[in-house]
Fold these 2 entries.
Entry 1:
Amino acid sequence: MNAKLQWLRNKMSSLDMQGLIINNPINIRYLTNIDAEGILLLTRKENIYITDSRYIEQVHSTVTLFDEIIVYDAHDVSKDDYENFFMFCENVGFEEHYISYAKYKEYIRKFKINNFVETEYIIEKQRMIKDEEELKNLEKACEITDNCFKYILSYIKPGMTEKQIANEIEEYYKTRTDGLAFETIVLSGENTSKPHGIPSNRKIQKKDIITIDMGCKVNGYCSDMTRTFFVGSVPEEIKPVYDLVLKNQIQTNEQYKDGANTRLLTKMVENDFKLYGYDLIHSLGHGVGMEIHEAPYVSYQSDTQLKENMVVTNEPGIYIPGKFGVRIEDTVQITKFGCISLTKSEKNYIII
Amino acid sequence: MNAKLQWLRNKMSSLDMQGLIINNPINIRYLTNIDAEGILLLTRKENIYITDSRYIEQVHSTVTLFDEIIVYDAHDVSKDDYENFFMFCENVGFEEHYISYAKYKEYIRKFKINNFVETEYIIEKQRMIKDEEELKNLEKACEITDNCFKYILSYIKPGMTEKQIANEIEEYYKTRTDGLAFETIVLSGENTSKPHGIPSNRKIQKKDIITIDMGCKVNGYCSDMTRTFFVGSVPEEIKPVYDLVLKNQIQTNEQYKDGANTRLLTKMVENDFKLYGYDLIHSLGHGVGMEIHEAPYVSYQSDTQLKENMVVTNEPGIYIPGKFGVRIEDTVQITKFGCISLTKSEKNYIII
């Protein structure tokens, strides 16, 4: 059996769980490489993937004998089959954060489950720690993002629209990767004050501030980087804000390491911003992997510890409504004694 | 109050529901035009939207006084506020197909809800019937899709890859619409046997079969069209399959009207395919609106009636594993006595 399924079966044993239903397609892809619509059942003895006729061919071409996964077309699974899958299972786990309340009720009926137990993100927690192959994909995605940013700095000229720049980034990624990790954010002028704004038809001015938040996917793994930069020169009123954001981004990088507490890390930035009259209005960071936002979350709400080989963002930002915003973000890998920035683009004032 | 919220409040009254929590962002956008992350609460007297600081500015610029929506930053909502929202409500509705089991448990605690009741897709059911403005957007999205298809027929040349063609379609849409309604499917040769295949680097041959499934979004509303066509000539072995699919697509169009039963419609196509030794391995159609797949579903599992001003696809297909596949799909509007095809591209043999 493949190593990830084997790990999960050991975990189930330790939790006294004889069966498990997995619905989250990202978790299924993580465990099996299957990228389709369907559900994965871990019964006492078998790993079963139930899909429909649209995906059967594709799924068969993905799984190997080594995976030990039996693939069914939902059309061929009878009412009795469903009732038999977990027949001798006392406890069957389910993804309580993923399946809907309606699905929960349906499964209890359909699978005749004795004791349906919450699994508290067991797979997501395992996904936080990246193995060698995952790290290679993340590094590659970040490297291409650095290259793309370098290219886009040379591409941008006053008169171009935010949308046009976002399209050019998408084109760059498309020819080199599996595509975007998320919709590219390109904002300019007063639009930069919206942390999650959408690229508009606003044209780049001769003296302008621009924020780009960008990332791509390589073999299913994401990158995430933001830079705020300037056309012509850095306006005096922006300099102190930029410096404050950068200072905190660098300090956070210095604090990111195995054992660091996510709430404390966030609190430190928040406090420093408050000293100067600003707020940290979003998280300081988030895990990056098969999803662009995944555990662990680095925020005030999240009280957890960073661990070796987690990959997270470090992205402080300050936004002044109607005026401008500054965010600087890297994707970094946590190590025993520090961290390695996987995105490596310039962070001091960038002027084009 | 805006008409859609007013409709929903009337519906709630008739269901003896004093409060309602809406989580599905598409339903929220349908009711309020808000396109952000947050939840919509309909309490006894107020419409409340709770979002976070990332979206506050954008939400404020969307809602009008006429909507009568109070917008909160989640940061400013206290534990007491949550407990007070539904204080005098006997029954509070929730979207049981949308919220997770974990969220369901959390809400009961957080909102101190007496009786949390399932709403059985009330908003989705209303969304099935399109109003005049929605129809205008759907027509526009379909018209641009026809134009794009015409353009792409002139663009395709042997030697181009499936991916390259998909990119060109995306580019076309990007400059004219809000973007793709779904990832464009471009398949050629034996790849056409996978109904939901992903464009690959396979190059178009001099004698080839090509299937393109494409759609865009206009003001949030989708289009969906598929054509299977040929390079050079139509191979003799494919002709009978193409003719059979086309015959059934035309017959279905003739049957699509107010009152028609979705299961019977599907059964008719299925039976005709079986006569010739083929299967209908996917649905015959699905609703199209703010989502590319939405209610009503036209399939064997769905026993419902088409109604005036529903917009659905009509997409029979036959797939022969390892050899080829044929699908012909239009987006059509149901009327009292028939239907109007919103996508109007040629359906007889297309040879490029």
Entry 2:
Amino acid sequence: MNEKVVKIGLVGFGTVGSGVVKILLENSDMIAAKTGLRLELDCVVDKDIETERPIKVPKDLLTDDINKLLDDTSIQIGLELVGGTSAAKEIQKKLLQAKKDVVTANKALLAEYGNELYEVARQHNRCIAFEAACAGGIPIITGLRTGLAGNDIQAMYGIVNGTSNYILCNMTTQNEAFSEALAQAQALGYAEADPTLDINGMDSAHKLAILSSIAFGYEIKLGDIYVEGIDNISKDDIRYGGEMGYALKLLAIGKKEQDGKVSLRVHPSFISTEHTLARVNGAFNAISVFGSAVGQVMFYGRGAGMMPTAGAVVADIIDVALGNSAKSFKHLHLRPRNEINELIDKIDNLVSRFYIRIMCKDQPGVIADWSKVLSDHQISISGALQHEGRGPENTVPVVITTHPTQQKNISGAVKDMEKLNSISGRPVCIRIVDIPEDKD
Amino acid sequence: MNEKVVKIGLVGFGTVGSGVVKILLENSDMIAAKTGLRLELDCVVDKDIETERPIKVPKDLLTDDINKLLDDTSIQIGLELVGGTSAAKEIQKKLLQAKKDVVTANKALLAEYGNELYEVARQHNRCIAFEAACAGGIPIITGLRTGLAGNDIQAMYGIVNGTSNYILCNMTTQNEAFSEALAQAQALGYAEADPTLDINGMDSAHKLAILSSIAFGYEIKLGDIYVEGIDNISKDDIRYGGEMGYALKLLAIGKKEQDGKVSLRVHPSFISTEHTLARVNGAFNAISVFGSAVGQVMFYGRGAGMMPTAGAVVADIIDVALGNSAKSFKHLHLRPRNEINELIDKIDNLVSRFYIRIMCKDQPGVIADWSKVLSDHQISISGALQHEGRGPENTVPVVITTHPTQQKNISGAVKDMEKLNSISGRPVCIRIVDIPEDKD
């Protein structure tokens, strides 16, 4: 069989980069047998070429000079696995300008500067492939762009950050406080030394920006997404929610509303413990996609980690080498900002059910107080539960669930509740998300 | 924006065909906006052009003469949605010979004559796309071929026949007999008037043949697959298995064994009720794929039905029109039969745990009898449970679970047990499948 040799240059010999090197060195025969492509790693660029990596590459491939890669016209594909947004952006631009197609796992960069980089790619008749940027090894980009292309995508609900899911699961099952669960995640390597982007929801927002661009065909900006992290979640709320049949997940949600607007948001969400997404444990990811033809499709697997992410990078290399990525990229039409600005829904308009927890002083008239505030804001109560046991200042926790209401009503009610003498501290509000379950 | 017009001819205006027409008529603008392709249905061929369909097409598109489609050189893509294997095979050949790419949902045809048809396609420099042939709306072909291309696929465990899953679920939750559950599935439209291929496992085998060809890169033949259906399953065994923590599923399994051989089989399987696949209910499908890099990835959704399957057909139309299918098809290298014959494992060599149920006469020495047979065949018992309650002829059911043992040992033991005076009837044997759960 004739093999086509595909020459590859890697920038960024870190964790994912090492995984890619491992696959290219070890699975090259398997890939050649299945695809007819002989993937050949010709250059590995990193600032640090001294530190020993878990994976060895021949010394002559290693360099700290990116020009060696850029000047080698035989190299067709450049991998940007540096991460971050400043240096990586310049590297991607240089690769494209040097007429190399780019494969990347850099969700932060694409979420913030994707439209700019796509434009550079188009100018140079190149493509950028980024399966690895969303949900690691799960082939969700391919699934949305190719397998579900016949569907009008109506909604996506995703657990797309393994670190925060791991923390929430441990808070739930081990009754740990947020800080304890975070420390454990860090000790086990599930959270970075600086876990800010994971726990404040921004990493999920990066992925949602990319996924929703493809799903809805819009030029999504990061600023279109409402983002709330898990850093203020208390284990008490997880327990109270659990008693009512809800599991707490950090969800990334993209949804076409009935008025044609698209709402994009990342926030802690109570979902029914019966829903499949509630059973996604530990560092796993899952995305439920609702399509006009297919109904619900769910993708599940490892959303991060050296080898899962590296596998997705190699899949993209193959897709680029086959010429498929270029076509998908060329035919990816995103409706530009001026057309869609008013189609992006604002969080204030969101209609949702809410979980509200207030700490009430043990005195007469308390219920009358808070129920009047809710009533004043047209909020209808679906359930209320006063827990026994004392909080600080002799308070007792009262948990209220609401019928669907607009976010702005809740925001108003919370402000008014804070002023009440009978309530201590700020009410806790968590959205209850009723994910449709596609059932027979 | 410049749109590229893609002309399409459909053969087979049945259920899935109607769904495709519906999407092409209703979602054409959405698809054009997202991909730049204007899909245009130009010809609908069916033997019956009189019967009213739920979806209307302009009269002048309808014809009972396939030559109108074949002779129209402007039509680039032909959809074969006739089903069955004899007429459909000729139709696909004619389409390919007329220089049209083929999109199909016909798993039976591809499983039996795929290699022959692929050869015809290659001769005419055309491609055959078949995302809809496996698991309906779930993008599993794309996932395996593109998204997981960087992985060496080690195993697949799939629930790929919704009818049998629906029947087994109802037998489990409603304690229905097989015949009752089947009748209900037929009444609700989940089973065909002739459900033979669904319940005897052949439909699952068709899908496994296609999926394992792509996953392992082998020219798989239907005869390579060991097939057992659900038609002999009794609700008692489902109940006894349930008491031991197992759910019964009809699994399609493709697995690379440690000796490099591939075992391919479809049979009723007891799996842990804790495994994600045990929670796949009703007519849904799910496939767990284990890749060398990614670990476990699961795809879940509707595996059949008019619109889910039609959505997959339209996805293929888009992929063909973009030129991607042609490249994937051209680069799909399957190792030919003469290389792989001895790599296909025989069921006799299978090592598995087993559930065995025997009906014992209530007399002394029974346990000594059957335990000696198992011991004679080197089968080690992991659990045994004698249920109270009487069967026919004053017998009591005894359920035995084994440690891993070879299929041929079990087959020998079953033969010997049948000869025992203390046992009535034929022992029931169901494999216990320990699907690895990729956990943290």
